[in-house]
Every structure is written in structure tokens, then in C-alpha cells.
Design goal:
By secondary structure, the protein is an all-alpha fold. The chain has 2 domains: 189 residues; 125 residues, no CATH class. The chain is 66% helix and 0% strand. The protein is built from 20 helices and no strands. The termini are far apart. It is found in: Nucleus. Belongs to the MYBBP1A family. GO terms for molecular function: RNA binding; sequence-specific DNA binding; transcription corepressor activity. Its main location: nucleus.
Length: 380
């Protein structure tokens, strides 16, 4: 139950700021959010620390409701202001349970309009992300609110496919923030069944979350669990999730990351880097036996991905494996795209890739031998 101080109408001096939270300019949005939060905290500090002032109560309601706005940039601006306000409001006046209650009041899914429901769903996710980023869940040591937040993110991830990436991002943030004790007691029991089917039905979001769990909590998400659920071979001693045993599945997962183009998925880059750390021969094998055919025989988006990843791999390769990645098939797709103006990748290959390639070749990780061999392949 929120204790709210008695008060009149909201102070009109900050009401105009709500519109500016949707400004297209990021710096302007951030400045407006900071100004709004400063004014509300000043109001809050005038009264009882354990009682939410009427202005703060009003603004919190407006910010949470505003998270469902479809006005461009507004959702981000409202989320920024909400996160910053939660950071500074004492939990004795407004805690995580209060925010979850407010979210249910202000962001109800009516089910009467698909477009409106979509905005409400996104608003709920952004509200939970603001709560997580404010670190209030950790500061309060509220296992109940932590569990409720985790459950809601899992529920949202299953509701609509477009909610899955951002919901799993929130889950990943929770995994990183909580202590090993809290993870084992509260979080892992809610997450572990997501990983019970091993590689066969694994999505990119599940893999990223599992890796985070194993890295931050190796005693709970341990080798025994990974073996039991077919993430690693029974004979494995190191317990590495990524290895030769899963190359087929990794190729499928990498190919499914094209939704964020033209930006390349950080997970796709991370997978290639992880395979590269196994050794140049492993990377060459992964590419030539699994990834190349998966990407080059598919859509323009996946062919674009293959070119960007091939450039990324230059820092992980030795000369002997260079031709396995920069193969005749890959080069032919590149040449056809450059020569044919009607090719969907023509402008990208002509304007974007040379710059990206030039930047990569100047990195210290790309050896002189690889640079020379690569140039020889390109001009052969």
C-alpha cells in the first residue's frame, strides 16, 4: 500500500516536460528527464521521507502510462525518466512492489485492439526494465518482487515473438545483478526448465541467457546440469557450452539473428569469437562444414550476414584457414553483388563493406600474414 501525502493539483511548472520526453533528440530527452526528476525529488524531500508526495505519485502514474505511447521516442524518454526517478526515490516511500502494482493498474491489456495491445505489452516490458535498471530489486532484497518480475518477463516472452528478445534481455540483467544465493533460491528454479531440451530447440535468446547463467553462477548452472540436459557431451571435462559438438545448432542460431539488420547481432559475433577461441582450425571447420551452406544458400539478409561475419573472423584466423571462410562461394556472391546493380546487396557491398573491411584489417589482432594472404585471395 502506497502512503501518499495529501496535496492539490500537480505543479504546472513541470507538466510541459512530459511532451518533451518524446523528443527525437536523445540529448534533449535525457536533459528533460533529468530536469523532471530533479523537480520531483525536490518536492519529495520537502515532506516525510516515508510518504510519497502527491507530485511524485502523479508523475509516476504518468510515466508508467506513457510507456505505452506509440509516439516515436516517447517510450524511451518515459523509461529514462522512470528509471532515474526510481533510483532516487527511497523504497520506504515507493518500492518495487508498488511499481508492479502501478504497472497492473496503468498498463492493462484490454484485448479489444491488436495495435493497442501491442503498445501495452511493450509498455509492460519497458516498465520492468526500468525497475531492473534502477537496482531497486537488489537494494530491497525482496525475493517476492524479484520472482514476480522474472515470471512476468517469462510470460511476456511467450506472449508475442517480438517481445522475446527484449524480455530475455531483462532476464539476463537480473541474472547478472543478483547474488549467487538469490540466483539459486529464486531465479534458477524459474529459468532452468527453459533449458531442459538442450540444443535441439534452442533459440538465440535461450543460448545467450544460458551462457550468462553458467558464467555468473557456475556452481548452480553446472557441468552436471549441462550434461543431463544435453548441452555438452557426457565425456566433456571442461564444461564448455560451445564446442564442436554443437556446430550444427550454432549455424542455425547464427542464421536466425538477421532480424536486427543492418546491425549485426552481438550474439552472432560472440559465437564466432567463442569458436575462434577454440582455435583457427575449429573456426574453419565450423564455417566450411556448417555456417557457409546455411547462410549462402538462403536470403539476401543471410548472405549479407555471411560477408560481415567473414570480415569479423579475420582477427581469429590463421592463414591456413583463410580460404575455408573466404571461399570461392563467398567470393562469387560478393563479385555478383558488386557487378549487378539490381542485386539487393549491391550498394552495401559497394559502399559499406569496403569501409568495414578497411577498419578490420588495421586491427592489431589481424596478423600481417593474414592481411597479405587475404589481399592475395581478393586480387587473385
Amino acid at each position: 500500500m502506497i502512503r501518499v501525502a495529501m496535496g492539490g493539483k500537480p505543479d504546472s511548472s513541470y507538466l510541459h516536460l512530459f511532451w518533451e520526453l518524446g523528443n527525437k533528440n536523445e540529448e534533449t530527452r535525457n536533459n528533460v528527464a533529468e530536469k523532471l526528476v530533479q523537480q520531483i525529488i525536490a518536492k519529495q524531500n520537502e515532506g516525510d521521507e516515508d510518504e510519497l508526495c502527491s507530485d511524485a505519485n502523479y508523475v509516476l502514474g504518468r510515466l508508467v502510462k506513457g510507456l505505452s505511447s506509440n509516439r516515436k521516442s516517447a517510450r524511451v524518454g518515459f523509461a529514462t525518466a522512470l528509471t532515474n526517478l526510481l533510483l532516487l526515490l527511497p523504497s520506504t516511500a515507493f518500492n518495487s512492489a508498488n511499481l508492479l502494482q502501478l504497472m497492473d493498474e496503468k498498463l492493462k491489456v484490454a484485448g479489444t485492439s491488436k495495435s493497442e495491445d501491442k503498445e501495452i505489452y511493450l509498455g509492460r516490458v519497458f516498465c520492468l526494465l526500468s525497475l531492473i535498471q534502477s537496482k531497486k530489486l537488489n537494494e530491497e532484497n525482496s525475493n517476492e518482487s524479484l520472482a514476480e518480475t522474472t515470471k512476468e518477463l517469462l510470460k511476456l516472452s511467450e506472449t508475442k515473438s517480438f517481445l522475446r528478445p527484449i524480455s530475455y534481455h531483462g532476464l539476463g540483467e537480473i541474472v547478472i545483478q543478483v547474488s549467487p544465493v538469490v540466483f539459486k533460491k529464486v531465479i534458477w528454479p524459474l529459468l532452468s526448465d527453459r533449458f531442459n531440451n538442450g540444443w535441439e530447440s534452442c533459440t538465440s535468446e535461450q543460448l545467450e541467457l544460458l551462457q550468462s547463467c553458467a558464467k555468473t553462477n557456475p556452481k548452480t548452472c553446472n557441468t552436471a546440469y549441462l550434461k543431463t540436459n544435453k548441452w555438452i557431451p557426457q565425456k566433456s571435462k571442461k564444461g564448455n557450452i560451445i564446442g564442436d559438438h554443437c556446430f550444427k545448432h550454432l549455424a542455425r542460431i547464427v542464421a536466425e539473428t538477421t532480424s536486427c539488420h543492418p546491425k549485426i547481432s552481438p550474439l552472432a559475433l560472440s559465437i564466432l569469437t567463442s569458436v575462434g577461441k577454440l582455435g583457427s582450425k575449429h573456426l574453419g571447420k565450423f564455417w566450411s562444414e556448417h555456417l557457409s551452406s546455411t547462410l549462402l544458400t538462403s536470403s539476401p539478409e543471410r548472405k549479407y550476414l555471411s560477408l560481415k561475419l567473414a570480415i569479423h573472423c579475420l582477427s581469429c584466423l590463421e592463414v591456413d584457414q583463410l580460404s575455408e571462410i573466404w571461399s570461392k562461394d563467398l567470393l562469387m556472391h560478393l563479385y555478383h553483388a558488386l557487378l549487378n546493380k539490381d542485386n539487393p546487396l549491391h550498394l552495401i557491398c559497394k559502399n559499406e563493406l569496403p569501409k568495414y573491411l578497411g577498419e578490420k584489417l588495421t586491427e592489431d589482432e589481424v596478423t600481417a600474414e593474414v592481411q597479405y594472404a587475404f589481399l592475395f585471395i581478393m586480387f587473385q
